[in-house]
Amino acid sequence: MTEGAGDHITRRPEKVEKQIMRQTKPIRRLRLLSFTGAVVLASVASTGCQVDVGGQTLPSPYYIYDDVQYFAPGPEFKLSNEAAAMKASKAQQALDSR
Which ranges of 1-98 would DSSP assign to H, the alpha helix? Predict the structure, then answer.
């Protein structure tokens, strides 16, 4: 048997190799796109979304389970202490000038 007799069995012709490469490119591209899509979908699903409901900015769907923060309403007029001090000062000046 000569050396070249079994070559057609063990080696692929160049045309067959090129055909196989053309077939695997779309498969690789499809795998890459599906993997990228899965990563993007997982990251979006895990971060939650921010919504505005009734004037509140709710950062995620888990806001219900957060501890409640309550801020008691303060005076409507923000400078009430200053206004009271000015009124007391005027009253004191009126008493001193008599």
Answer: 7-10, 14-47, 80-97
